[in-house]
Amino acid sequence: MTARQEVDREKSEGRQYVSRDDVVEAAFALAESEGLDALTMRRLAARLGRAPMSLYTHVKNREDLVDAMVERLIARLDLGERPGETWQEALRTALAGYRDLAVRSPRVFELLALAPYDSSPVSPHLARMIARLERGGLDPDQARQVLGIVDAYASGFLVVWARTRFEGTTAAADVPSSVAGLRDLATFEPGLEALIAGLDATLVRVP
Questions:
Q1: Residue 11: pLDDT band with limits 50, 70, 90
Q2: 163-200 residue pLDDT tens
Q3: pLDDT of residue 203
Q4: Using CA atoms, how far apart are residues 75 and 83, in angstroms rounded to an integer?
Q5: Which of 52, 82, 107, 144 has the fewest CB atoms inside 10 Å of its own CB, making it the most exposed?
Q6: How far is 53 from 55, CA to CA, in rounded Å?
């Protein structure tokens, strides 16, 4: 049975219409409650009370579904742009929004953090951020380098932090005091400040 035939059969049975938005929101709910490994078309269809084939009238495949989820995550970002901000201020406010998104959606955050730069939802977002850094005083080459370096730091830090929230961890009594707190979210902002200062000194202010 084709996807269209499956939808027609469900309509004939009087089932409520399911939209693409419904499918994407159900995917978020499934991933946040059970993890990304649980996000299969079969599990998603079961959550919606539909046959798996019927989902393909809304998304082409799992990759298309993930792109839709990444697009939704980008829309949820609060990047906090303000007129007249410097590039340093732009990074601080944008990365605060990025961190807050990881806190709100820890199990799906890595879909955005690890998405390829050239994917359709991500590349326009990065282009806007590069333009923002240029408005803040960087030239185009500096803006690209700074964003690439800071994104590597922030994405790596936040993905590790988010994953360790749900993985089994060693009992606190068994953790050496020298490493306790290394993955504490409170270290994210000081690390970002050190990185911004280093970039300003070694990349931006170089004669």
A1: very low
A2: 888 765 544 455 565 555 667 899 999 999 999 999 99
A3: 83
A4: 20
A5: 82
A6: 5
